[in-house]
Amino acid sequence: MRKSWYFLLLAVFICQVYTAEASLDFSNFVTVGFEGKAELEFNQPEDLVQAPDGNFLIADTGNNRIQVFDAQGKFLRIIPPPKAKNDALAASPTDNRPANIIKLENTGFRKPTGLAFDSEGNLYVTLMNQDLIAVIDYPSGQIKSTIGSSGKKEGQFWIPMDIDIDDQDRIAVAEFRNRRVQILDLDGNQINEIIYQEQTEKGGFRHLEPRGVFWTQDGDLIVTYPNYHQIVCWNIKEGTIKWRYGGKNSGNKKGMLNNPSFVAQGIDSHLMISDTKNHRVVEITRDGKYYETHSQKGSSKGRLNLPRGLVLTKDETMIVADSGNSRIQFFTAGPTTLLLKEAKVLANKDEWNGVMTNVEKILQLQPNNEQALDLKVNALYYFGDNAFKNGDYDKAEDYYRMVLRYRPDDGNIPQKLDKIFWEVNRPILIGVVTIIVGLIALVILIWILKLVFRRIKAKVTE
Question: How many other CB atoms sit within 10 Å of the CB of residue 151?
Fold first, then answer.
């Protein structure tokens, strides 16, 4: 019975390690590119997304183009493909394509800003200075169609910024000058509209300018409002706000933002926010609570200047459009992340000596790493329970008391120390109880003998 309880307790602790919110360790940095117009040179890079083929696209906004690169930062191509010098600007008589596509090809992109893919792998690009969304055949890089026109009506745009498409092919577009987010179908028909208002000092209301949009795994829409230093999670179906993060005033303390722009998916359903004018990436939980901050202002490796688009890959590499430094930065996992992964594998195999070795290395690098501390506590429980089972009560007590250094309020430790006390003092307690019971029995026996003697004496007297 004791053994079954031991394994149940151990399983609970291991589960706690695996369900604990993970902290990203970005301690290795690789920079790619600098300011210019050549391959992997940038001018005000904005959005950054991963394509269905695993490569990455960045909106090279100031250079009016999109650059494609692989996971190692190697340049692949430009979208749309550059026109040859001898290409005619006018359409040939046999060109049956729509005039708007021909015109867009001839004039070229003007400030591509937001990027997104639909379920068919088509690329959607917001053209900020042309008030359009260009739909592009990603493999060829050719323009297939356009959505919208300049204006304030449904399906029209005025300075469209970011764009995102969910798994139902709903398009969310942040319109900066129209101060709204439009939800469209793939044909450009409006499904919904989101307008966020703040109360002015005079008691009226003004619409806030959205910049970034991001569909969550739950179907909610995250919208950034840079001039209000806030991001908002919208329940699109009900048209209500689920939570807000940030505040009316800018700041660089925990929980504060300064001109947030783009949002990306993190791990454990966390969200990564480009806190642009704080020159950092802020990580928050899925319900809008502060979790961690990554990087700070600078131009050296690992430092950011006005970060914009960002992506977190499956191997936990964070790629950031470092706009103010005119480059891309790859933030890759450092030793803490790698040691934690190995420690979790060892814990699952009950190889706790190896776990402790990894944990000690992690805590030397990050003394307050919660996951490492959880693993250490689990290891101490494991060693303590084993020592108790083998009758080495002094060692078991040492392990349990070490748990209290890291978890002073752990409610299980007093119970375990009580068990050790009873096990260690059992012979003495049994002896004491035996003596007490013997004395009580002797007293009772003497009392009985006295009683019998009195009765015998009474009969003799009669």
Answer: 12
Extract the tokens encoding 78: 């430009």
Instruction: Specify the 3-state DSSP secondary structure of 4.
Output: helix
Q: Output 361-369 pairs: Cβ under 8 A, ≥24 positions apart.
A: 361/335, 362/336, 365/335, 365/336, 366/25, 366/336, 369/23, 369/336, 369/340
Q: Are 379 and 366 in contact (CB under 8 A)?
A: no
Q: Copy the structure tokens of residue 110.
A: 């003007």
Collapsing DSSP states into helix, strand and coil, what is residue 300? coil
Question: Tens of pLDDT along the chain (462 residues)?
Answer: 344 444 444 444 444 443 344 456 677 889 999 999 999 999 999 999 999 999 999 999 999 999 999 999 999 999 998 875 445 444 455 567 787 787 788 778 899 999 999 999 999 999 999 999 999 999 999 999 999 999 999 999 999 999 999 999 999 999 999 999 999 999 999 999 999 998 877 778 889 999 999 999 999 999 999 999 999 999 998 989 999 999 888 999 988 999 999 999 998 789 999 999 999 999 999 999 998 898 999 999 899 999 999 999 988 899 999 999 999 999 987 788 778 888 888 998 889 999 999 999 989 888 888 888 999 999 999 999 999 999 999 999 999 999 999 899 898 999 999 888 888 877 777 788 888 988 898 899 888 888 888 888 877 776
Distance, CA of 180 to CA of 364 (rounded, Å): 49
Backbone angles phi, psi at 339, to 5 degrees: -65, -40
Look up tokens 């108790």; give the residue. 388
Calpha distance 50→67 (Å, rounded): 12
Report the largest interatomic distance among the alpha carbons of the chain, rounded to a whole angstrom. 149
* Separation between Cα atoms, residue 417 and residue 393, nearest integer Å: 9
| Residue from 383, 388, 389 nearest 354 by CA | 383
Query: What length does the chain have?
Result: 462
Backbone torsions φ then ψ of 141, nearest 5 degrees: 80, 5
Query: What letter does residue 212 receive in the DSSP assignment?
Result: E
Residue type, 70: D
Contacts of 288 (CB under 8 A, 6+ apart): 231, 233, 242, 243, 244, 245
The helix/strand/coil state of 34 is strand
pTM of the model: 0.75
- Determine the Cα–Cα distance for residues 115 and 138; give it in Å rounded to an integer: 12
Q: Which of 246, 266, 251 is nearest to 26 (CA)?
A: 266
